[in-house]
Amino acid sequence: MANYTLTVNGRQTEVDVDPGTPLLWVLREHLKMTGTKYGCGIGACGACTIHVAGVAARACLLPVSLVGNRPIATIETMASDSVGRVVQDAWIATDVVQCGYCQSGQIMTAVALLKAVPKPTDAQVEQAMGGNICRCGTYVRIRQAIARAAQQLG
């Protein structure tokens, strides 16, 4: 076990966990932040997507020991993030969600994309979102919501 000081959603918190513990389980089990979902455990589905220093990352693959002092943002803070709020509003206006399980990861990936590329091309959206799986197949509406958010941010 080791003690880590993490900055999650702008707040510092300490956890005492095994260094190899995936950040996903630190967030869900130790910090009780259940918005980040477990999907596959191998980084292939995107349900566990978070931001580490502003970059989309798979929390199921990232050991807590490798986070260092980089800030972590989860879906729980997106309503207070200027781009996150616009993306969430576009998701609602476009009626993206069906079961909702993958949506926190989808939104986190979309927010990271729009922060990096405010006016993404269709190819850039496809590239960025390609690693996020939606079992309900809402891909068309997801892309429409991203376009709507980009327009509103522009």
Question: What's the SSE blueprint?
Answer:
Layout: E1 2-8, E2 11-17, H1 23-30, E3 49-52, E4 55-58, E5 72-73, H2 82-93, H3 103-116, H4 122-129, H5 139-153
Antiparallel strand pairs: 1-2, 3-4, 3-5
Helix pairs in contact: 2-3, 2-5, 3-4
Explain how this protein is built:
Helices cover 37% and strands 16% of the residues. The chain is an alpha+beta fold and 154 residues long. The strands form two sheets. It has a three-stranded antiparallel beta sheet, with helices on one face. The protein has a two-stranded antiparallel sheet with strand order 1-2. α2 packs across α3, α2 packs across α5 (139-153) and α3 (103-116) packs across α4 (122-129).
Short overview:
With 154 residues, this protein is an alpha+beta fold. It is built from 5 helices and 5 strands; from the N terminus they run ββαβββαααα.
